[in-house]
Amino acid sequence: MDDGKLAGLVTQAANYGLFDRLKTLRGLWRDIAQSLGGAPKIDPELPADDAALLRNQVRECLQGRGGEVSARARAATLGRSYLELNAVGRRNFLKMVADEFGPDTGQVDKAMADVAKASGPAERHAAERSLREALESPRQRLLTQFNALPEGVKFLVDMRAELLPLSKGDPAMQAFEADLKELLSAWFDVGFLELQRITWRSPALILEKIMAYEAVHAIQGWSDLKNRLDSDRRLYAFFHPRMPDEPLIFVEVALVRGIAGNIHDLLDEHAPVEDPKKADTAIFYSINNAQKGLVGISFGNFLIKRVVDSLLHEFPNLKTFSTLSPIPGFRTWLNRRLAEGEDAILEPAELRALAALPAKGEGAPQGFAQLLDSRWVDDGATAQALRTPLIRLCAHYLLEKRSGTSRALDPVAHFHLTNGARMERLNWLADTSDKGVAQSAGMMINYLYKLSEIEANHEAYRGQGKIVTSAAVRALGKG
Amino acid sequence: MDDGKLAGLVTQAANYGLFDRLKTLRGLWRDIAQSLGGAPKIDPELPADDAALLRNQVRECLQGRGGEVSARARAATLGRSYLELNAVGRRNFLKMVADEFGPDTGQVDKAMADVAKASGPAERHAAERSLREALESPRQRLLTQFNALPEGVKFLVDMRAELLPLSKGDPAMQAFEADLKELLSAWFDVGFLELQRITWRSPALILEKIMAYEAVHAIQGWSDLKNRLDSDRRLYAFFHPRMPDEPLIFVEVALVRGIAGNIHDLLDEHAPVEDPKKADTAIFYSINNAQKGLVGISFGNFLIKRVVDSLLHEFPNLKTFSTLSPIPGFRTWLNRRLAEGEDAILEPAELRALAALPAKGEGAPQGFAQLLDSRWVDDGATAQALRTPLIRLCAHYLLEKRSGTSRALDPVAHFHLTNGARMERLNWLADTSDKGVAQSAGMMINYLYKLSEIEANHEAYRGQGKIVTSAAVRALGKG
Amino acid sequence: MDDGKLAGLVTQAANYGLFDRLKTLRGLWRDIAQSLGGAPKIDPELPADDAALLRNQVRECLQGRGGEVSARARAATLGRSYLELNAVGRRNFLKMVADEFGPDTGQVDKAMADVAKASGPAERHAAERSLREALESPRQRLLTQFNALPEGVKFLVDMRAELLPLSKGDPAMQAFEADLKELLSAWFDVGFLELQRITWRSPALILEKIMAYEAVHAIQGWSDLKNRLDSDRRLYAFFHPRMPDEPLIFVEVALVRGIAGNIHDLLDEHAPVEDPKKADTAIFYSINNAQKGLVGISFGNFLIKRVVDSLLHEFPNLKTFSTLSPIPGFRTWLNRRLAEGEDAILEPAELRALAALPAKGEGAPQGFAQLLDSRWVDDGATAQALRTPLIRLCAHYLLEKRSGTSRALDPVAHFHLTNGARMERLNWLADTSDKGVAQSAGMMINYLYKLSEIEANHEAYRGQGKIVTSAAVRALGKG
Amino acid sequence: MDDGKLAGLVTQAANYGLFDRLKTLRGLWRDIAQSLGGAPKIDPELPADDAALLRNQVRECLQGRGGEVSARARAATLGRSYLELNAVGRRNFLKMVADEFGPDTGQVDKAMADVAKASGPAERHAAERSLREALESPRQRLLTQFNALPEGVKFLVDMRAELLPLSKGDPAMQAFEADLKELLSAWFDVGFLELQRITWRSPALILEKIMAYEAVHAIQGWSDLKNRLDSDRRLYAFFHPRMPDEPLIFVEVALVRGIAGNIHDLLDEHAPVEDPKKADTAIFYSINNAQKGLVGISFGNFLIKRVVDSLLHEFPNLKTFSTLSPIPGFRTWLNRRLAEGEDAILEPAELRALAALPAKGEGAPQGFAQLLDSRWVDDGATAQALRTPLIRLCAHYLLEKRSGTSRALDPVAHFHLTNGARMERLNWLADTSDKGVAQSAGMMINYLYKLSEIEANHEAYRGQGKIVTSAAVRALGKG
């Protein structure tokens, strides 16, 4: 990866939280590190000489001289140095840790030999334990020290967010990343997470982050957010006790009558507020993972179950729990299919309907592929002509598996099927925003969580790769 | 270990918390487990047939059918079964888990072979990771599932308390215990702990546990406790977010003028309350580990540092931080020394002083050894005759190392020396309770935490085994 | 009232709270008062010279020199002086305030004249307002200043507790007391009260006060209290935001099946804990006003309604809400009736049954009156013979009115009838404690709160003095 | 007042809070009122027939049938009816209450007669008390009932805000308003207020109100607000326990080095954040009363003292406490002075300087008066020419008294002088916003709170009307 790309990555990562946090951390950690005297001045690109300085800091952290309080000061010093590095410097530093602070090969080999020659279970047990210890890398102890720092857990989460793209294709970096993931997995065990309802009474600090982290249906500002927190809406988030200001994952819910099929209706700030006690349906219309550094450490499943429990407790009249979800991979898949030629993928009647559309003048989009890239949703006749083929193809897409696996191709489908939901209803012109058209051809899908079927659906999907659908969706997919 | 002893162990463990918890857990977990139907009725001694039932439950937990919510229900079912077992049944169950749910030997061997034949660092990294995974035992996954249960972490902590005595001399049980310790160590990392001040405003629920867990100077009742929480006293405890009702470790502090040398003065409920703002010295007069199941997972060091910070913030006038500590191993050590003969361990002048004591009548204790076992502290003349030899011998004891190590023989001394304290002053007739006389010959010692020397002391002790003392204690030890 | 009695009163008032509070207030207010220099040393009996000093302090408080912060310091100084007085000194001080700091007679007369000669409504309105202001006494402004002090509201509440017995027969003191009551009534308006559930998680500080303030069925210690807070019990208290550590009134509730008729069953610490979800009945078995200084400022009615709401929310299965109450005036009333002669108040059959009791030996109690003063509840035969007449007479008593009023004679009956309850069931041998026998001849009564009838009952009692009873109680009262 | 104006008043009052509250109250109170059956449909203008309905509702509230819970339901019904009225209807309703539910004239007359003929102090005391009771109007009891409703206190505060403008020139309405003020004064006694620091962690609900209520230097949006809550800023507000979502008064503070003389520097979102620990000066740059309905119930004085205490506790290095305040009445006063002719109020040198300004072309402002109404602050030369006369005249204005009183003419000056501050420094071009130019000719003034002088200043101003100033301001005022 060249340095230009790297710079981009860091810029990208410099979202809301990171910037503010940098400022805060510098202050907090300076005080803690103070007892050790001033930190050395380091070039942000971390050339070899400065890398040697940091290597030394890492070693001092690992030696653990002077008790745990000193250890904390040293970790703070190292952390501050890291925060001052730019993208190139950070890659250099992470690479150094990956290459130099992994498990000791000699010790591992010796421990393996001891296991191999162990006579009897007693010796074997002891030798296996030594082997496990030998496989624990020094950098794991290093990382653990950051937990004792204020905001230290968030620091590690963000470090993993930076490490993940850098580790592609680099086994040493991957091993480092795996160490970090193991640590975070233990700490972020679902038992430690706290479900909180977010309301207009929540701290502005938290609400500001919800706005920054919402990536499915971007929040336009404070009044949009306030609307999503009104009395007929709910927003729940998981928090961790060591990152109390950072939502980990959150879900937005609308309390309505009947399954909602249009996202614009739900987000309309001017729509009247309904009495939530009269609602029979809860629509999960946006689920967001807020922390890139926790990718692969899953709690979405638990979130939905906990939210369903909480909603049922507050509104015993709720009968139906459903999502209103994007189909993010559809157009990408469809574009690939278009390579087969329009004749190959469209039915004769569909082709005829398209051909019958009146000409729009020079340069106007024509033909299936071109139309798809236009704002066709704004033109009634075109939309009408596209409706049948798009719905049919989308149903096909949704039932498709990722090549060579028993896993649904669409990532959102995979998430909800794993949780035990079923594909319930495909909604036409459900999200006509530019993003909605570009990703999902304006369609959205309801995944239905029927409490009595969740376990069976989950098993069927996990075990035999069965994609559970309603009869309606199944019929479309056969079309 | 025979079954009689086992029964005793469980009775012993059935302290306050456990009994109440059993009641609570049964209720809480019944509701969670309910979805799975009734649990099978199991004989508390867990004969082979019933063991097979539980083996099955463990396997179902590990298969993870039906998503995480079902997993939670299964863990609750298994946990409830465990809670119904008696001491024999629990040993049988733990033994089964130790023997049958450790790492898979075949997988480990294969993974080791892969590491051995790895060509190049990339392959080696990947193979090492696989080896680590192979070494992770199924029972670790099992234990992790309990974290998602209410009170589940406390359940595991208590299980370790039961496992520890059973694992002596049994490598499989030791390996199991090591797995559990590893898990708890990650969760109880010092970064997760919260320091709380305990006051008369604290929940009665917590105060009741403080009373039950205080083992150094037993609390006689609510009014004794209230006295220890008065305005010139402080009590701090560490808590964990997943065990909010359970203190992990706590320390009791008296704010006084000058270093205190007598525990009875500090505990006297009728002593006048002093103005804490005028105090120049904080005396740590009792430090208690409250959770047997967290033995070996240390946070005492951090506690003292955090408490010193907190006290300094509230009372900037404090100049001196010192303990008033028992010397629990002295009499045991002295008893062993007595085997050498009184002439060998006492100075001529000391022998003469003892001989000069007037006779007390038939059957009254005579001679050094006999006197030591009597209530000599109540008799002025005897105490006077014993003073010189006991202080001298005690100073010798305190400076002694555990055989073959560089570690102080006395466990309390080892704890404070590791933390960077120094031995400051030996106090005669400082604890004349029966326990104080029986363990420490009525003496207590101050360990001084001088902030500017802590790190150096810690290093000197840890590195070279140097026991740092005041000149006065050193002089006594040379006598 | 002579000084001996006075001293007694203060001793009596020196209950738990007052003593601790004195200590606290002295400290808190010293700091606030400090800016004014040391307070003058005052003789606790407040002789004339010292009274002049305090008179001056009161005047300075009223002049309000130097802004509100200075006013606060002066109030603190005055408050501290008051706290140092003994019973005689306090009476002297209160008398001085009563006599010298009431409304200005001249101003009142002038304002009345202005009202009288007002021409037209506009002048009348203005003159009436001036009259109201003239009637506001300086001491009211004085008392108000204490609100700005920490614990100042509690100080005034306690001052009223001291003032009440002293004001009997003294119109000036009564006027002072009325001023204080008016102030407290505004502050303790029911809208400001907060209902809190008291549990074993409540601060020990609060629990200790609950124990001190429980006067109906004394709490024997912490384990008795813990039992009353178990999962099948509830304890609710009202608090005021300016007295957060002081319960104002509290009620103890047992969740049971069917209406309970025996207090010992409810208080038995060894009785098994029932599943509260299966309860169909809530028994209010103890209601206590905790603050003597709030006598006549009623919130008991609101408490019961709020507790019923809270219970119904938590336990929708509850069908019946009832008290189990003492009949505190019965024996006093019966003793008066006994003057009529046993023949006059007992039925022939009852007399015969008593006569038929076997003789118990010399000096043993004999006859109705004598037996009543003995521990007859412990003797089966005697109790049997007393049962019919006592129940009959008690029912008569309960239906009796206070002479010349439409108000029930029994004060507890009056309280619950005013709230809209009805007399439901008389319980024989329901409270056989010494106090229960001495006051209520061992009987207790259930007052039933039937939600659909409360308003009608309340109106019938308040309007026409109708005592609503069940058919059973009515029948007994006719006997 | 004609109905058009009335409608305007209500529209004006329909600020943020009111609108949201209406929605909320309707819901909350509907549930409470439900037990009484549906409220009658009432014409929002409240014609005579409908007024009769409400008159009846008021009477029912006062009769208090059915206990306090029913009373609450009736108050809720009445409150809901009121909320549905428009401006005309509300005036009609308030007028009815003012005219018909005041004190009973007959009872007052009788009670006055009893006072007049009282013989001896005992009778007099009793009679005065009866007179006080007779003077208490039924509507006071009515108003008190609203305290028991959720949001009921805020309802009364807002009702007073509506009543105040309507009561001008109407003695009956004034008497009603005085009743309401008396009630609110008791409830909003400074002892009940809670100081809270507002931060970016505060609920968005509160922050939104701060933005709506800030009237001195309007907050432009969330990022402006966030800037005012940064680490070198503080915002404190007083709250009342019965209106926890409503700030009563709040103050904004900047922590700086030296006394600030320019408001734009303080409000600049792009200015660097300073380390507050290095600040030596706290600038109170905005103080806002948030509740129109609490006009005349003062707590500003206490707020400043409490904030100073809080700041000193957090930042012991602070040496200086000063405001940066507008001079809101200056231009109005100056406009009146201009009637005397420019020659009369300007010095010859000042006139010459103005005359020397180069001509700006046709229609451009000329002469002192015309220039003052222009954006002269943007033109260096003009501003220079205006500087001397404006500063001189402003100092004159600041030292002027309200006609016939010893009170400073400028309301902000009066507020701070009453609190014991002194006029410290006049700042040229300190607020060049349109509002700043229009009100204060772009100037601002620092009122200095010197802790050691506050009490003396307060007394000097309150007693002898002395306006305390620095030598510099005094010199300007003499010019």
Largest sheet of chain A: 5 strands, mixed
Class by alpha and beta content of chain A: alpha+beta
Mean pLDDT of chain A: 89
Q: Between the first and last Cα atoms of chain A, what is the distance in angstroms?
A: 45 Å
Round the Cα radius of gyration of chain A to an integer and report it: 27 Å
| Low-confidence sequence ranges of chain A | 1-19
CATH-assigned homologous superfamily of the largest domain in chain A: Malonyl-CoA decarboxylase, oligemerization domain
**Topology as H/E string of chain A?**
HHHHHHHHHHEHHEEHEHEHHHHHHEHEHH
**Which architecture of the largest domain in chain A per CATH?**
Up-down Bundle
| Assembly annotation | homotetramer
Report the largest inter-chain contact. Answer: C-D, 56 and 56 residues
Number of contiguous helices of chain A: 23
Please provide a brief summary of the model.
4 copies of one chain form a homotetramer. Chain A is of the alpha+beta class and 479 residues long.
Tell me what you see in this structure.
- By secondary structure, chain A is α+β, with helices and mostly antiparallel strands.
- The first copy, chain A, folds into three domains: about 5-100 and about 135-185, Butyryl-CoA Dehydrogenase, subunit A, domain 3; about 190-325, Aminopeptidase (3-Layer(aba) Sandwich), CATH 3.40.630; about 330-479, 3-Layer(aba) Sandwich (Aminopeptidase), CATH 3.40.630.
- Helices cover about 55% and strands about 10% of the residues of chain A.
- Chain A has 23 helices and seven strands.
- A five-stranded mixed β-sheet of chain A has the order 1-2-3-4-5, covered by helices on one side. In chain A, strands 6-7 form a two-stranded antiparallel ribbon.
- In chain A, helix 2 (about 15-35) crosses helix 4, helix 8 (about 140-145) packs across helix 10 (about 170-185) and helix 19 crosses helix 23.
- Chains A, B, C, D: GO terms for molecular function: malonyl-CoA decarboxylase activity.
- Chains A, B, C, D: This is Malonyl-CoA decarboxylase.
- Chains A, B, C, D: It comes from Telmatospirillum siberiense.
- Chains A, B, C, D: InterPro entries: Malonyl_CoA_deC, Malonyl_CoA_deC_C, Malonyl_CoA_deC_C_sf, MCD_N, MCD_N_sf.
